[in-house]
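One such shown below:
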Amino acid sequence: MRFFIALFLISTLCRAQNDSAITIPMLGVHFSAQLPFGNLSERFGNSFTAGGSFLLKTNKNWLLGTEASYLFGGTVKEDVLVQLTNPDGFVTDNEGYPANLRITQRGLILTLVVGKIIPVFGSNANSGLMLTLGGGYLQHKVNIYDASQRVAAISGDLEKGYDRLTSGFTLTQFIGYMHLGRKRMSNFYAGFEFYEGFTQSVRKVNYSMGLPDTQQRMDVLAGFRIGWILPLYKKAPDDFYIY
């Protein structure tokens, strides 16, 4: 009989501990691998992002915060230097030799997000299914790197005529799982993220076309993100977790 009473008390204690959600300010870093869709897929291939965030988790498990991500990739499908390419298929430098150029994708994503943590699968009250949505700013461009600095046609401000700098408002969504543990180093989240950018060209003229680019674009990214979190509480309370 005492065994069953003890078991009942332990079970009740665990449930009480599991219900102790607390307010936690959190700094985070994240890394993502993404696939492009919509107009973005016509210009770029697969990409990556790396960045940081500040999130506030309330004692009701609501999330509020801001995120910043650096966007980069190595595949550019659009030939932005077609006007400078010779019949042999390469760009020549000022001395007539093949230019040493590297053409890549670069960009920036800044967002404000709101979301919710929903405890599932027996997790403690501060961990569980992570859902967020938000909005902000998306920018991307074709980065042209002239290693030898010997191509006058793309030096200085002339590069802006070829870089396809594009920006605009973006929506974002995330679905995944967040784990907050007793130890600061064991806090993380992982899941799937999505961006829908309503963008257009920032440049007045694209040199390769010789015309203004006034296209209204739908730039979509979908990928998998993993992040590490540093909670800013001074000390995790004893009833934060189930033992």
